[in-house]
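dumping this here so i dont lose it
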């Protein structure tokens, strides 16, 4: 029963993240990318700050749940810098591509993280190499146009997937050293402050513009950042890690569906074929590995 409840919470998380791509696109009809990024991150940080007492209670008030860890400030700033770089690259990319394609390309971080781990001396499973090859084929069909060149938006989102992979690795380094919720809270505030400077210098948004985009901004800040992250933390306490990663990867599918239903952005048969290949690569990368005379190991072990 607990696992079923956790899986439903993870499915809701994936749905929120998938819809978040649509919110990002709609929000930029009213405000610029830097303004959207600044506000959504500051709202996300504020949401987590307000939810902190509840989260601490749900997690049984963990010993590391305080603001005095020597690694917390350093980790929050490092994660925030990485998050700002990745999310803003994605934000600009969504201006020039469909949210469905952006969702699938962003999900490549599932394959990229193990590959980047090579530089840290970690072993990469054979199935990940196969996933990477399938993902490249899928990316070709999804992104290549008749001119045989990917669009500017697809390239920007691909770079963002690489940067999100680095962001995940930075979190992986600092999360054992400090409380994860507080680390995330600080990273949102850091990313928001980083986006604040170019917002004021380059875009100078008027209050009327912010009000016009308030719905999309609040969805991204409160739900995509604050609430979805909270759901993930609570759900993964009782979820199988492999099942959790598979369910969360469905955000790419929800991005494509909501992009079609809300923005009326459709994909060609060629692009749909690329989506299928990339989704297969994402799923394959998360499958457990079988060892001789051993039960299946969970992904990542």
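and the seq i came up w/
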């Amino acid at each position: 029963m607990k696992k079923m409840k956790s899986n439903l919470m993870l499915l809701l998380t994936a749905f929120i993240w998938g819809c978040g791509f649509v919110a990002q696109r709609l929000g930029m009809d009213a405000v610029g990318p830097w303004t959207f990024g600044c506000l959504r991150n500051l709202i996300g940080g504020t949401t987590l700050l307000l939810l902190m007492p509840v989260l601490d209670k749900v997690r049984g008030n963990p010993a590391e749940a305080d603001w005095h860890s020597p690694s917390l400030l350093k980790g929050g700033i490092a994660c925030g810098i990485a998050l700002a770089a990745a999310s803003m690259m994605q934000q600009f990319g969504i201006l020039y591509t469909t949210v469905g394609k952006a969702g699938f390309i962003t999900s490549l971080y599932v394959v990229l993280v193990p590959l980047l781990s090579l530089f840290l001396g970690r072993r990469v499973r054979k199935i990940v190499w196969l996933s990477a090859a399938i993902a490249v084929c899928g990316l070709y069909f999804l992104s290549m146009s008749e001119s045989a060149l990917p669009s500017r938006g697809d390239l920007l989102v691909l770079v963002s997937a690489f940067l999100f992979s680095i962001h995940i690795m930075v979190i992986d380094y600092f999360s054992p050293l400090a409380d994860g919720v507080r680390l995330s809270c600080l990273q949102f505030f850091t990313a928001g402050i980083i986006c604040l400077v170019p917002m004021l210098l380059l875009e100078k948004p008027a209050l009327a513009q912010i009000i016009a985009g308030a719905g999309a901004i609040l969805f991204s800040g409160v739900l995509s950042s604050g609430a979805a992250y909270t759901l993930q933390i609570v759900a993964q306490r009782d979820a199988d890690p492999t099942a959790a990663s598979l369910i969360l990867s469905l955000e790419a599918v929800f991005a494509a569906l909501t992009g079609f239903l809300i923005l009326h952005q459709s994909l060609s048969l060629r692009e749909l074929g690329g989506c299928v290949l990339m989704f297969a690569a994402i799923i394959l990368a998360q499958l457990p590995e079988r060892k001789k005379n051993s039960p299946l190991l969970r992904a990542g072990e």
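Confidence is low (pLDDT under 50) at residues 291-301.
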